Amino acid sequence: MSARHWAHVGLTAVLAAGGVSMLSARCARADDYSDLLDILRAKGALTQVEYSTLLAKHRHHAAEPASAEAPRRGRGAARHGGVVTADAADGAAMPAVLAAQRAADSAAASARAAEASMLAARSTIDSPSVVRVAPYVSGKGLTFKAGPIDINFSGFVNGFYSYNMPGHGLPVAGGLSSGGSGFDSSAVRNGLLPAGFVLKLSTTQSGIDMSAVLGLYPGLNNANPGAFNANSGGSPVGLGTAGIDLRQVYLTAGTKSFGTVKLGRDLALFGSDAILEDATLLSVGSTGSNTAPANTSLGRIGLGYVYADWIPQISYASPVIAGFQGSVGVFQPLDAYNFAGGRLSAVSTQHSSPMVQGKLTYTFKVGDLTTKIWSSFLIQHQQGLTSTILEEAERRGAMAEAGEIGAKLTYGSAQAVVYYYRGSGLGTTGLFFDGIAQNGRKRDSEGYYVQGAYNFTKRFKLVGSYGVSNLYLAAGDTATGLVRRNQSEIGAAYYDLTDWLKLVAEYAHTQAAAHNGNSANDNTVSGGAILFF
User: Cα-atom radius of gyration of the chain, to the nearest Å?
Assistant: First the structure.
């Protein structure tokens, strides 16, 4: 029971047990009751209102029989030999006062016990052995707290129906249009994103913020492992299974003042903002192969930018200072690859030095306009080039180099993205795809895309974009059947049905042209949904 309850019990005992005796002792011990009330108020057993009410009642009862007190005192004195002392009256009142005091002490002890129990319960809840769930924030995943460790599980799932209609066309080596196939195709497939399930553990030890991340990215369609592993073309036959792209395995460590070091496999720096700002990341874009879908579509990869890729790395990101942030790292070197086939490009599998990438980002706001500008570079030495006319023993090499710049502007409900890249030995579509000619000379490449979006409501958005990737022949290069230009125009509508679920409808027109004049084009209509949690 509460301390206030016991205080009321004690006061009731005082008034009942004291009776006439308390009134008789009024002159000698009148302050005992006010003292008791003061004690109970000080212990928190009585509110100010209760204290004032009880004190007023006490004074009223003490004064009420004053006029009749003298005759009663005289008669009492006669019955008891004519003497009534104050000590006798005190003796009658003290047991009730002591009872009230004991009740107040008991109430205070109960309050202390309740407080101790509460503190013990709180200590148990805060114990590292208890796992708690943090408040959910839509799109940020589920976070569990086990003592000083945060465990976050997030992800997304998507699926689309895509109908591809090839136009008339001739083969283009390295081209990204299906126009030469001559057959329409239907597919139930992933978009540019596969599904994704990401587990992140983070904590702070000795003042250092650290985390470990594992990202699993499975597709919908059967895998047909090849040079691109789970991202190779699909295999739409019975008894097949989907592939899992284990693209994220890394750790980070750092502080707010020093920055962050990353060690492991994650998205590279060069080209990363180009794909992250691409609206087709949440849809399909150009399909690549729609007859045998891979883990993902192309989106705008190879049609405005070169794929950044998920590469083993040791990288450093600085803290953000006045809107600026710098990043630099060494990365696993990648082979020069003959993507177009037909022995049109030189290849390399020898690397004595790592790939180096760096990026600078600046974000600022002027009025209602928010702007992000980024620029990055890439360098890698390709060694031991081989082709139909080059032997590895010739020890031919080439230094691949590339740079990019881009910007995103947001003003109210409108957004715009502009991007440009240029490289030598970089190739097109993927890093170092067809970047070096058979004779060992580097091919130049460049590309760009522009994108506009407008949110008509908080839930409904329209997006349109256009992009181009060009690959030029090197001096003495005879690969005239090689792609010269891949380009696409894409329009899409996005509707947020709930905080988790986004509905998507999209149209894409893709074209490819070769140096010898061959060309192809196709049209794709896609519809589906993507869910984030």
Answer: 41
- Taking alpha carbons only, the member of 165, 47, 451 closest to residue 280 is 451
Overall pTM surpassing 0.85 (yes/no) = no
With CA atoms as reference, report the closest residue to 179 among 169, 188, 187.
169
Contacts of 76 (CB under 8 A, 6+ apart): 84
387 within 8 A of 347, measured Cβ to Cβ: yes
The C-alpha atoms of residue 326 and residue 316 are separated, in whole angstroms, by 8
What's the CA angle centered on 497, arms 491 and 502, to 5 degrees?
45
Q: C-alpha 444: how far from its chain's center?
A: 38
For residue 218, the tally of other CB atoms under 10 A from its CB is 19
User: 277-327: per-residue pLDDT in tens?
Assistant: 999 999 999 998 899 998 899 999 999 999 999 999 999 999 999 999 999
Local structure of residue 352 (DSSP, 8 states): S
- Rounded to a whole number of angstroms, the distance between the first and last alpha carbons of the chain is 47
CA distances in angstroms from 208 to 96, 173, 214, 283, 326, listed in the order given: 64, 50, 20, 38, 20
* 3-state SS class at 85: coil
- The answer to whether the beta carbons of residues 223 and 242 sit under 8 Å apart is yes
Rounded to whole angstroms, the Cα distance separating 396 from 387 reads 11
Tokens linked to 45: 């057993």
- CB distance 29 to 88 below 8 Å: no
Q: Tell me the helices (H) and strands (E) count for the chain, helix number first.
A: 7, 19
For the segment 375-379, the average pLDDT, to the nearest whole number, is: 98
- Which helix (H) or strand (E) element contains residue 110? helix 86-125
